[in-house]
Design brief:
The protein is built from five helices and two strands. With 139 residues, it is mostly helical. It has one domain. A hairpin with a 7-residue loop joins strand 1 and strand 2.
Length: 139
């Protein structure tokens, strides 16, 4: 039986969904074993490390050097956000000045999941640590 071939967008979608599912299952296991007081800081450290690694990989893939200014950073970030932010999270990114970036998180699947699990008060979002990891590598 012939199968449908996946296009790039479908492949990207399933890879991101699988990655996010793995992330949530792993986080849940760590939280149930060690508690949220341990799981959240561990997640933040992992997210920062991931940011460093993925920025380095992205720069290598696109042939970029570490950004020297906000214009170059924004160009690199615009390419990277295709992987950084899944389509099922609604995030608006603004550049109000020559040296700043503002994130407006309008809807987040992780936030909804933590709220549903009843652990939202103890949860610390890792996405901003991940972006900090980008800054660490781009220095």
């Amino acid at each position: 039986m012939p199968f449908k071939a996946l296009n790039r967008e479908e492949l990207r979608d399933i890879l991101i969904r699988n990655w996010m599912t793995h992330d949530s299952l792993w986080y849940g296991e760590v939280a149930s074993r060690f508690g949220m007081g341990e799981a959240s800081p561990m997640n933040l450290r992992v997210c920062r490390s991931l940011g460093r690694i993925e920025c380095k990989r992205l720069m290598r893939m696109v042939g970029a050097s570490p950004p020297r200014d906000m214009v170059e950073y924004r160009e690199l970030f615009e390419v990277g956000k295709q992987v950084l932010f899944p389509d099922f999270a609604e995030i608006r990114i603004e550049y109000p000045g020559s040296d700043s970036q503002v994130f407006n998180v309008l809807d987040c699947f992780a936030h909804r999941g933590m709220e549903k699990a009843g652990v939202l008060p103890d949860y610390e979002c890792g996405i901003f640590e991940r972006i900090e990891g980008w800054f660490g590598w781009c220095d």
